[in-house]
DNA sequence: TTGAGAATAT
DNA sequence: TATATTCTCA
């Protein structure tokens, strides 16, 4: 879903307006199917009855002019947007063209946003400065795919080595910042801590590895100890695999059983806990309840 | 100086 | 509640 949008936007960037129009017009009703704009929609009697001030009838010139205005404003909007994006890329000096979002290094961005006296910032055009101050970076949404990737990398590294920078590098997702990962990792740790506190003290590592209630402890043990097929401490997960997070309709995600988890660490034999399968269950997964029942 | 992690803000 | 930002400390 998201990928589709990105693809279209990319096409939009590279193909120019003419192709855009093809894109925009695809699937739209033909001119014959539409009521001509030159036609007055409300009969004068009706307009009079409802005290609607009659609109002056439109000529083809009016219609064309309106159409051109619309295109012009769209193009203006588009070029401003592109300028803004280019500006961010320049400032961050990072290749984030394959973004999940238009992210950037928060520290560098902050410096400019706070109206710093940096020479480069001063040299910017008023338009760029204004745009840059007002445009707020969209927040990253941790899609199930992205989170799955995160979980895979954390599991791969083991909790000891799972630090934001390393996770970010192994996830290999364009535009993902260390801050994004750190924030998510923080949430993840809180989640795992909560799970641990709910966990029965007598739980053995084996239990942790095989049961549906696999806990973060199994991740702590990391890939080395818990993976039956794992002889070298690796989980067979391709590292540094270029990853394009994709939005997936939730019903599809819900229908995803273990078989649907390509690349899920083998340590999750029997399937990762519900909270890992459907990650945005950080707040909904209750391991104790699942054990009891 | 940098990065991790916690605390706090949005 | 999710994510971003800021702060502290190693």
UniProtKB/TrEMBL annotation:
Major localization listed first in the record, in broad terms: nucleus
Biased composition (Polar residues): 195-205
Domain of life the protein comes from: Eukaryota
Bias kind Basic and acidic residues: ranges: 86-113
One of the record's GO cellular component terms: nucleus
GO MF, one annotated term: DNA-binding transcription factor activity
Entries under Pfam families matching the protein: Myb_DNA-binding (PF00249)
InterPro entries: Homeodomain-like_sf (IPR009057), LUX/BOA-like (IPR044841), Myb_dom (IPR017930), Myb_dom_plants (IPR006447), SANT/Myb (IPR001005)
Positions of region (Disordered): 82-123, 195-237
Keyword terms of this UniProt record: Nucleus, Transcription, Transcription regulation
Annotated compartments: Nucleus
Sequence ranges assigned to domain HTH myb-type in this UniProt record: 134-193
Biological process according to GO: green leaf volatile biosynthetic process
Name of the molecule in the record: Transcription factor LUX
């Amino acid at each position: 879903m998201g990928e589709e949008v990105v693809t279209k936007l990319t096409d939009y960037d590279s193909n120019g307006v003419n192709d855009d129009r093809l894109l925009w017009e695809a699937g739209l009703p033909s001119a014959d199917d539409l009521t001509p704009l030159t036609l007055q929609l409300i009969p004068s009697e009706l307009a009079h009855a409802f005290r609607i001030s009659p609109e002056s009838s439109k000529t083809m010139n009016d219609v064309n002019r309106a159409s051109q205005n619309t295109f012009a404003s769209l193009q203006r909007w588009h070029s401003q947007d592109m300028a803004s994006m280019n500006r961010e890329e320049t400032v961050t000096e990072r290749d984030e063209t394959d973004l999940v979002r238009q992210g950037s290094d928060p520290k560098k961005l902050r410096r400019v946003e706070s109206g710093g006296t940096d020479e480069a910032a001063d040299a910017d055009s008023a338009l760029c400065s204004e745009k840059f101050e007002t445009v707020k970076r969209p927040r990253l949404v941790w899609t199930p795919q992205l989170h799955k990737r995160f979980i895979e990398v954390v599991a791969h590294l083991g909790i000891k080595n799972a630090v934001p920078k390393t996770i970010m590098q192994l996830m290999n997702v364009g535009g993902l910042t260390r801050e994004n990962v750190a924030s998510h990792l923080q949430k993840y740790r809180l989640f795992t801590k909560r799970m641990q506190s709910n966990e029965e003290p007598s739980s053995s590592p084996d239990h942790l590895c095989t049961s549906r209630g696999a806990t973060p402890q199994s991740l702590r043990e990391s890939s080395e100890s818990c993976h039956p097929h794992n002889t070298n401490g690796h989980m067979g997960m391709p590292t540094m695999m270029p990853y394009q997070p994709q939005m997936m309709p939730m019903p599809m995600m819900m229908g995803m059983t273990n078989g649907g988890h390509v690349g899920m660490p083998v340590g999750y034999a029997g399937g990762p806990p519900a909270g890992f399968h459907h990650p945005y269950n950080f707040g909904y997964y209750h391991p104790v309840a699942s054990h009891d029942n």
